[in-house]
Design a protein that fits this description.
This protein has helices at residues 16-34, 36-56, 82-85, 94-106, 109-119, 121-124, 142-152, 173-231, 236-265, 273-297, 303-340, 362-391; strands spanning 61-71, 153-157, 164-170, 343-349. By secondary structure, the protein is of the alpha+beta class. A hairpin with a 6-residue loop joins strand 2 (153-157) and strand 3. The longest helix is centred in the middle third of the chain and has 59 residues, at 173-231.
């Protein structure tokens, strides 16, 4: 005979389960209400961020390159090269000034315009796979494109090594690589343009001085040629020397002839044929000597005046030649100095072709946002507790 347990020991009252369920819901509602602030400030935003970073946020690839801007005179302590061309003067090393100046250009609207011309930059940031929060809006204004571009391109200069690190973020590996490579090309082209401008500016004054000296020297040489052609005398100095020697010789001959005539006058009659011949010879020599002397020192067309004009022209020619030599030397010195200030970009590390996306940094971003939200919630809770305590 089996013993039977009374049925009422195992039977649950009909209203027990529903009452427990209602209590659970009520307790849950009370807890949610008590932690409503935490849910609104921390939990809900974290869920939204996690939802975005997980399946929605687009991957971004990074291409990195390293470069150095150098000049032949980079050992100077003041700004030079590109820094001088851009009007930057400071006590920082020249290499740092030049690198910072080039970095400023690569993040400027000029660089954006050059990139947009070569690569259609805006379309690279409007790929169909890019999420709405990361995408550049269609028909974006140039200012909007520049702002977006500066978020995607970053340049950092190291004062210890003098190397500038350039990182480019894009939503496709080939886009990041193309932007980085084109930026380096644009930077080198810009440096070459500024090199040419600086070179021309440095040589402009000396070139003008050399041209003026050359023109003056040419003018004096032409006047000398015309003088020689007009006077039918290649070297008036030698001609005058020969003329002086001739006059001196004629004076000696005249003196000798006069002495002979004086000695004849005491022995023969002045009407004697020998005396008349000697007298005619003296007269002829005197006339010739007078003519030669008049040629040397007489009218404005004489040799003395012509020799003065020739000596003046020759002096001007010597002065113009010296001025031309000095201007040519100054131009060569300026050319060497400008050559020492020429800049060039050294590619230390070429842009890489990215394989793995580095952004968005999901875990780091979630932890950072979580920490920030907790801090904000803690500050708010302390403020609210202080208010309640003060009100009590």
């Amino acid at each position: 005979m089996h013993a039977h347990t009374p049925p009422e020991l195992f039977e649950v009252p009909k209203d027990t389960a529903p009452a427990t369920h209602r209590d659970t819901l009520a307790s849950l509602g009370t807890r949610l209400k008590a932690h409503r602030a935490f849910l609104l400030v921390v939990v809900v935003p974290m869920l939204l961020v996690a939802l975005y970073l997980g399946p929605i946020a687009s991957n971004q690839y990074v291409s990195e390159a390293h470069f150095v801007v150098r000049a032949a005179g980079s050992g100077q302590t003041a700004a030079s090269g590109l820094g001088q061309l851009l009007g930057i003067n400071s006590a920082m090393p020249a290499s740092q000034t030049e690198s910072l100046a080039l970095g400023d250009y690569l993040t400027s609207h000029d660089a954006v315009t050059a990139l947009d011309t070569r690569l259609h930059l805006a379309s690279l940031f409007q790929r169909p796979e890019i999420d709405l929060l990361s995408r550049l809006w269609q028909q974006a204004a140039p200012e909007t494109l520049l702002k977006y571009y500066r978020k995607q391109v970053n340049l950092h200069y190291s004062s210890e090594t003098g190397i500038t690190t350039m990182t480019v973020r894009a939503f496709r590996p080939d886009d990041a690589y193309r932007i980085a490579s084109t930026l380096l090309d644009i930077g080198e082209a810009r440096v070459n343009t500024l090199n040419k401008r600086g070179y021309d500016d440095a040589l402009r004054v000396t070139r003008v001085q050399l041209a003026e000296a050359e023109a003056e020297l040419t003018s004096v040489q032409q006047r000398l040629t015309q003088f020689r052609q007009k006077g039918h005398d290649i070297d008036p100095v030698r001609s005058s020397t020969a003329q002086i020697e001739l006059v001196s010789g004629m004076r000696g001959q005249l003196a000798a002839a006069r002495a002979q005539l004086a000695s004849m006058a005491g022995g023969i009659s002045p009407s004697a044929p020998q005396y008349r011949v000697a007298k005619k010879r003296v007269d002829a020599l005197a006339a010739q000597l007078g003519a030669q002397e008049a040629r040397m020192t007489g009218t404005s067309r004489t040799m003395a005046v012509g020799l003065g004009v020739y000596e003046e022209l020759q002096l001007r020619q010597d002065f113009a030649a010296k001025r031309y030599s000095a201007a040519a030397a100054a131009l060569e010195a300026a050319r060497e100095q400008a050559g020492r200030q020429q800049l060039f970009v050294v590619r230390v590390v070429e842009p890489n072709w990215p394989v793995k996306p580095l952004y968005p940094q999901r875990l780091v971003t979630l932890l950072s946002i979580f920490g920030g939200l907790l801090l904000a919630y803690g500050i708010g809770w302390l403020i609210a507790a202080g208010v309640r305590e003060h009100a009590a």
